[in-house]
Amino acid sequence: MKLFPGSLLWRTLIVLVAALILSQAASLWLLHQHVTQPRMAFGIGQFVSHLKTISAALQTMTPPQQEEFIGRIAEKEGIRISLVRGTERMRPAANVPSIQFLRERIRELFGAESDVYVRGPAAQSGDTRPQVLWVRLPAGERDFWIAFPRGRIERDSANALVAWGVSGLLIAILATFFIVWKLTRPLSDLARAARTLGKGVDPTPVEETGPSEIRAVARAFNQMMAALQKDQRERATFLAGVSHDLRTPLSRLRLEVEMLDEKVDPAAQRAMVEDVGEMNAIIDQFIDFMRSEAEEPLSPVNLAELARNCAERAARGGAQVRCELSDVPTLLLRPLAMQRLVDNLLVNAARHAGGEVLVRAQYLDGEVIVSLLDRGPGIPKDMVERLKEPFTRRDAARSGSSGAGLGLAIANRVATLHGGRLDLLPREGGGLEARLVLPVT
Predict the structure, then answer these.
(1) Number of folded domains in the chain?
(2) CATH number at residue 359
(3) 98 to 50, 92, 116, 206: CA distances (angstroms)
(4) What is the CATH number of the domain that holds 71?
(5) pLDDT tens digits for 368-426?
(6) What region does 361 belong to: left with phi over 0, alpha with psi -120 to 50, or beta?
(7) Which residues share a beta bridge with 83?
(8) Would you say residue 38 lies in a domain?
(9) In terms of residue numbers, what domain contains 401?
(10) What does 39-95 look like in DSSP terms, one character per residue?
(11) Considering only CA atoms, which of 287, 286, 275, 269 is closest in space to residue 250?
């Protein structure tokens, strides 16, 4: 199990979010040290100076004047002033930074006995941050309680911090998606073109957009694709020219061999005719191999019917073929290419294995499977993938082999072009199973 995601999108998102969190943590610390604390100290200093003014005013007033003054203060500033009677249940306020700073300033002005209080016993409520604070204010011969909202000395910035954090994360996510989209769009186009090219189909050139590094990769891919297309055209031209040039002398040679009825041994004559036919078959393989199946349009094909037609054609040519065909879904395929695939597998099985070839078609687990089974020597496991490559033969694997080694390569290329695969498996009881598997989409 991978703890770190593999996609560029999520990796970039994690890096940016982590960087944002670290940046916000540093910003909050700097804000607290250089903005919040100085502003809090300034506000508390002003408030304590205001309390000093209230104390001085109360000392100079008569009781009726004090009552009038207390009423105006409560109405205008929300500060409640009451006489200390000694029956109030007060306890010192918790020693948080803002309270500690207020406590120190009050003691500087009104003496070491002054303190900041909250009302009620400590266990009366689960609220650890009472919203009303009390200060015992001396005013001449009488002491007064000054009750004021906690907001006068501190501000609750939690909502602002949450909003700031959420906004930053949203901005980071949107920026990440925009950046990654700009980066991955040309990469996705490049990946699709590479997959298309791997199936043997010539894709359209990749658009050279994005950052300079991405443009360089796209440009290199387009150059590589153009070079491959050029090599393929040159190879096809070469094979076509050679195949065409060999047709005429081979036709003449076969005609001359067939006219040697009384001049050579009949067995030798038949062998020469078979050799000429084998050379013609090799030329046919060259022509099939250089043909581009991707140019053929797609059309509905029933693989069971196609396999039956190929088997009947092989039987007319002398092969022993038996069919076990089930109903299968119709697929969009290239009919001539699929026919060449099945024909090549039938020719290989009849040529190399001898005996009866079983053709089977079935629909299983969302896949159409066409199998050709023989009782020949089979293929060693270490040779299976190599024999799917062009011009590869293994006489030790299939006795009596002949041809150019292109049959399985053509079949494998057609299967890959259609999004399927060609498996060469050992048959139960001996022999080989050539299995074409195509997904039903």
Answers:
(1) 2
(2) 3.30.565.10
(3) 17, 14, 11, 63
(4) 3.30.450.300
(5) 999 999 998 888 888 888 888 776 765 544 444 455 667 788 888 889 888 899 999 99
(6) beta
(7) 144
(8) yes
(9) 295-439
(10) HHHHHHHHHHHHHHHHHHHHHTS-HHHHHHHHHHHHHHH--EEEE--S---EEEPP-
(11) 275
